[in-house]
């Protein structure tokens, strides 16, 4: 398992996790890796941090740390379980594709780690910029889907409400 960060300008560190990401481990990554990356890449304090709201990301201690460092960079709050809104998912897909297509495929964990680091470093700034620039389109698509879902929900509620009223009238007739 890995933890990673990137920006419009550059790839950040790729951190190898020996086990599942826990709240304590995430809390150590934030100051050790995220904060230093954001400070270097966005020294103006205008950087924007987005995460996928995995359980360790949403823990109170992590949220508190991000709030305490809000003057260093902004933290966007995204809906949980919305991978289509997170460019890191596209990057991970690209890494997976690169690893799968690399001859010979890595057979042991250390080889996999080496290949992941190599491929991570090969991702071009233009690729990152394209992903970041796709965000307005992704947000617009999500808003359209949410709007359609709200319309469906309102229609269903209206139909259910009408059905209940209709059934309520039958016994009194």
Structure description:
The protein is mainly alpha-helical. The protein has one domain: Ribonuclease H-like superfamily/Ribonuclease H (Nucleotidyltransferase, domain 5). About 60% of the residues lie in helices and about 10% in strands. It has 7 helices and 4 strands; from the N terminus they run E-E-H-E-H-H-E-H-H-H-H. The protein has helices at about 25-40, 55-60, 60-70, 85-100, 110-120, 125-135, 135-170, and strands at about 1-5, 10-15, 50, 75. Helix 1 runs parallel beside helix 3 (about 60-70) and helix 4 (about 85-100) packs across helix 5. The termini are far apart.
Brief description of this entry?
Helices cover 62% and strands 9% of the residues.
Rg calc: 22 Å
| Proportion in helices | 55-70%
Q: Tell me, what is the CATH class?
A: Alpha Beta
Largest sheet: 2 strands, antiparallel
At the fold tier of CATH, the topology name is Nucleotidyltransferase, domain 5
Number of domains: 1
Straight-line N-to-C gap: 66 Å
The second-level CATH architecture is 2-Layer Sandwich
- The succession of helices and strands, N to C, reads EEHEHHEHHHH
Mean pLDDT, nearest integer? 82
Low-pLDDT runs: 161-173
Can you list the strand order of the major beta sheet? 1-2
Structural class: mainly alpha
Number of helices: 7
According to CATH, the homologous superfamily is Ribonuclease H-like superfamily/Ribonuclease H
Shape: globular
Range of strand content: 5-15%
Number of strands: 4
Protein name: Tc1-like transposase DDE domain-containing protein
GO molecular function: nucleic acid binding
């Amino acid at each position: 398992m890995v933890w990673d960060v990137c920006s419009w300008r550059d790839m950040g560190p790729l951190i190898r996790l020996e086990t599942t990401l826990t709240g304590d481990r995430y809390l150590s990554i934030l100051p050790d890796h995220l904060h230093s990356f954001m400070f270097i890449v966005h020294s103006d304090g205008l950087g924007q941090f987005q995460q996928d709201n995995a359980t360790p990301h949403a823990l109170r201690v992590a949220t508190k740390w991000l709030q305490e460092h809000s003057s260093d960079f902004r933290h966007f709050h995204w809906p949980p379980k919305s991978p289509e809104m997170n460019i890191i998912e596209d990057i991970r897909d690209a890494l997976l594709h690169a690893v799968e297509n690399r001859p010979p495929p890595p057979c042991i964990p250390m080889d996999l780690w080496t290949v992941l680091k190599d491929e991570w470093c090969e991702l071009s700034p233009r690729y990152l910029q394209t992903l970041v620039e796709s965000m307005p389109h992704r947000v617009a698509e999500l808003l359209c889907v949410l709007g359609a879902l709200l319309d469906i929900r309102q229609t269903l509620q209206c139909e259910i409400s009408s059905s209940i009223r209709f059934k309520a009238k039958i016994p009194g007739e």
